[in-house]
């Protein structure tokens, strides 16, 4: 029996590459060099499945005409980098990897929160540069998070996991906004209070953490007016998608002191990061590490493989998006 031909657009964890190479006629990106949009479009004509990552771009223009490919196995939970309507319209099934990265992304949100509040990045830079002159009572004083209010925008799996960590480990109060109702059994022991609009959360919270999909109506959801509502003592954390925040407006607000700080794991136009953000001491920047643990990245890859296995076996595919 002829094996289906599949393409991985980047290097994946070795255990997953081994599985896919065993079960399929798999082309690996051994150099791990990002593929262009045009190259991915061409691959749709040469492979039965193309498996991109969240750093790839699959716009509508690559889905014109007839394609050999029948499925896109996306490595990641987010899929705003794929024009889903165009892909589905061209007869392709699109899948993603929800659930498996919840804990690691919540851990990253808390990491950013703590680093920002306690000025950890700033402190490490001072020490490594040889500028630390020793302990003193007023040196690099940060913010105590216990008793502060965490505002979650997007109370899905990751938002809830972040809220649980913040309340249990740090003793923070939790408020949130979510477009749809969140069942009470998912909020057990959180004592989280829902607000009727995003603005209400921003005005009340000391720390705002974003956990919602990018693209569409969420593009620049955090514009200049909303960022200003957080206030001069407030922090914003983003482990969702870079385009959720208007990056230019955020830079202006940080520079003018209309917000105290930002912790960012994602950016508009990755991997480019504005020089203004890099130069700011009241900003913590991570290179999109939300799901970056060995266990989680392997789980993500195996979920893609499970989706492919089901598709090519004619079974119901577990994680389709449309």
Topology record:
Blueprint: E1 5-8, H1 14-23, E2 25-27, H2 37-43, E3 49-51, E4 71-73, H3 84-89, E5 93-95, H4 102-117, H5 120-128, E6 149-153, H6 157-170, E7 173-177, E8 193-194, H7 198-204, E9 207-210, H8 224-230, E10 235-238, H9 247-255, E11 261-264, H10 275-279, E12 283-285, H11 294-312, E13 320-321
Parallel strand pairs: 1-2, 1-3, 3-4, 4-5, 6-7, 6-9, 7-8, 9-10, 10-11, 11-12
Antiparallel strand pairs: 5-13
Characteristic key phrases:
alpha/beta, 13 strands, Rossmann fold, single chain, 34% helix, 322 residues, 2 domains, 6-stranded mixed β-sheet, 7-stranded parallel β-sheet, 11 helices
Overview of the structural elements:
Residues 110-290 form the D-isomer specific 2-hydroxyacid dehydrogenase NAD-binding domain. By secondary structure, the chain is of the alpha/beta class. The chain is built from 11 helices and 13 strands. The strands form 2 sheets. Strands 8-7-6-9-10-11-12 form a 7-stranded parallel β-sheet, sandwiched between helices. Strands 2-1-3-4-5-13 form a 6-stranded mixed β-sheet. β6, α6 and β7 (173-177) form a beta-alpha-beta unit.
């Amino acid at each position: 029996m002829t094996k289906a031909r599949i393409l991985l657009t980047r290097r994946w964890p070795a255990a997953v590459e081994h599985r896919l190479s065993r079960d399929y006629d798999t082309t690996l990106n051994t150099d791990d060099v990002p593929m262009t949009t045009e190259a991915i479009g061409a691959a749709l004509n040469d492979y039965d499945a193309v498996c991109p990552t969240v750093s790839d771009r699959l716009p509508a223009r690559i889905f014109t005409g007839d394609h050999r490919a029948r499925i896109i196995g996306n490595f990641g939970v987010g899929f705003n980098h794929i024009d889903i309507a165009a892909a589905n319209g061209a007869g392709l099934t699109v899948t993603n990897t929800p659930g498996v990265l919840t804990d690691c992304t919540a851990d990253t949100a808390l990491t950013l929160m703590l680093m920002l509040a306690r000025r950890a990045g700033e402190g490490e830079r001072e020490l490594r540069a040889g500028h630390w002159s020793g302990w003193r009572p007023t040196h690099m004083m940060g913010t105590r998070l216990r008793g502060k209010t965490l505002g979650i925008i997007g109370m899905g799996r990751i938002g809830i996991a972040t809220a649980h960590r913040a309340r249990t480990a740090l003793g923070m109060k939790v408020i949130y906004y979510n477009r749809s109702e969140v069942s009470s059994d998912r909020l057990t022991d959180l004592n989280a209070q829902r607000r009727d609009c995003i603005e209400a959360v921003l005005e009340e919270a000391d720390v705002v953490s974003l956990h919602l999909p990018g693209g569409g109506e969420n593009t620049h959801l955090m514009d200049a007016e909303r960022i200003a509502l957080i206030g001069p003592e407030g922090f914003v954390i983003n482990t969702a998608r870079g385009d959720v925040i208007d990056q230019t407006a955020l830079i202006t607000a940080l520079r003018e002191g209309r917000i105290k700080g930002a912790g960012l794991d994602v950016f508009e136009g990755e991997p480019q990061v504005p020089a203004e953000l890099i130069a700011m001491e009241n900003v913590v920047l991570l290179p999109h590490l939300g799901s970056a643990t060995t266990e989680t990245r392997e789980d993500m890859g195996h979920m893609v493989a499970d989706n492919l296995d089901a598709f090519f076996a004619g079974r119901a595919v577990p994680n389709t998006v449309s």
